[in-house]
């Protein structure tokens, strides 16, 4: 049974949604419109006048091999972040779900990383992997592995992925854990009687029943990896080496604020906007059929 | 096809014992009903047999071999849960096929078995539906189907009908019993409903607070209840019980009323009189002050108190008695053979003279 609240007039409901609308207007619609507007211009080097160029900014971007490389980087990065933040979270949640004693302590400990701000998390990881004083890189060195994410692209990517995913594991864990607790015990028992052992039960019963949660987390984590990882990348690699960790958002920043190419930067934001919209629609369309609400 | 044997089975949850040593021998093909009030340990006992709980002490044997350490899937049992526990994301067909698929049965064989079960349970038209698109009774049938396709040695049912309405319950009760008779699969059936127990059981285990009070056929339990608890739990309405002193084949109630009984026992006792055994009799020893008459159609229940002691008493009389009503007095008597006598100290039945 769906519960609905009905209002008599329109004033109260309007007042109730107004704050949200205002926030959206000021922080979302206004900048978005501005970005679209700006993407059609090229400002002069001193930023005093700007010249209307139509879609030239976009044309230029789509033929820029660095920009296209950034697409690939972003795809790699967000797939990795989503995997690295969701798979261990699910694994930990399954383990916590089986645990009866001490589950509360375990849960609390697992939630802590989420309380650490991304930039600080970035610094923490940077410290551990610092090529000269980092404790992890020192141990790796002792094992004969020469860690250097400042020069090595894949290592840099690995580091930003881990640093970005680390805090998210907590967040995802919470959702997975709650969802696991909601799976009726008798359904699991029925499967056990039907002959399914632990992993069989996990893949044929538990995982499908978790699919609404998994789907939700998938969307949230992809969006996270697109936008909220800026702080981590900025502190650890600043997009380097040789742009190997320059994801689209970071490129918007570095072209716009560092390179001062505001027209291109605005055009990139617009593309990003469409991309995320498209991705979300795709995810809903594709997955909704396979998700059991 | 299998026998089930419980040998001094005990179960403790974190130090508290809730099943206090149960012994039972269940024959091949028998329908055993475990009946008792809420919290007496029926489900726990069933789950011990299923392997969903570990046995703290004692042994469970299925078909002569000890299964204590076997996983549920290795015990060759099937279970029907109270909430059905269907797999919500699978169709009816997939629900029923799940165990066969895991067992590696071939596809045509699976289809054949599922369709046979569906036909038996009249589920053919629903095979492609999801559980949430079914009514309670249909879900119940799917749960049965899931158990049947596996052709297990033992069926376990945990209050499978308690979520259904009264009419459907009666219908499903018959269907389950018929099905079990036809398939001949040894079954353990848990319920707190004594009517279900009486109608379905070949033999019943009457449980109370983790103890088996009596194991026997419904009629044995009704006619010769071993304990006061079994006497009062089985039979509807519940048996009347009065404290009495028994001596020389006569029970003397506290109020001084004398009732003849067939009993060699002497001493403090509780006597049990079934409402349906009390007969209206102008010279009867018991005077009943009626304050409520419940006409049930086939019979009438008279609720009242003994005039002599104010103890509550229920009399069940065949037919309609519209003349009997509030604040009327009547006298009743009972045949000495129908007076059940229980030792007050132990609540155990004491032998009658004849037996
Ligand atoms: N997992 C458990 N942990 C601790 N105590 C339990 C557990 N399961 C059952 N008990 C206790 O064991 C006793 C018997 O429970 P059980 O579920 O077997 O009762 P039941 O006869 O099936 O009752 P009902 O008719 O209400 O289902 C109860 O006192 C219950 O509190
Ligand atoms: Mg129960």
Description of the structure:
The complex is a heterodimer of chains A (293) and B (355). Chain A has one domain (63-290): Orthogonal Bundle (MetI-like fold). Chain A has a two-stranded antiparallel sheet. Chain A has 13 helices and two strands, in the order αββαααααααααααα. In chain A, 30% of the residues are buried. With 293 residues, chain A is mainly α. Chain A has helices spanning 11-38, 56-62, 65-98, 103-111, 118-129, 135-142, 153-181, 185-193, 198-209, 211-227, 230-236, 248-258, 262-288; strands at residues 41-43, 50-52. Chain B has 355 residues and is α+β, with helices and mostly antiparallel strands. Helices cover 24% and strands 34% of the residues of chain B. Chain B has a six-stranded mixed sheet with strand order 6-7-8-3-9-10, sandwiched between helices. The longest helix of chain B has 18 residues, at 166-183. Chain B is elongated. Classes of the chains: A mainly alpha (293), B alpha+beta (355). The interface between A and B is medium-sized, with 19 and 22 residues. Adenosine-5'-triphosphate is lined by residues 13, 18, 36, 38-44, 192 of chain B. The site of adenosine-5'-triphosphate (ATP) has 11 residues of chain B, from helix 1.
Write a concise keyword list for the protein shown above.
heterodimer, A: 293 residues, mainly alpha, MetI-like fold, two-stranded antiparallel ribbon, 13 helices, 72% helix, globular, B: 355 residues, alpha+beta, six-stranded mixed β-sheet, five-stranded antiparallel β-sheet, 8 helices, 20 strands, 34% strand, elongated, binds adenosine-5'-triphosphate, binds magnesium ion
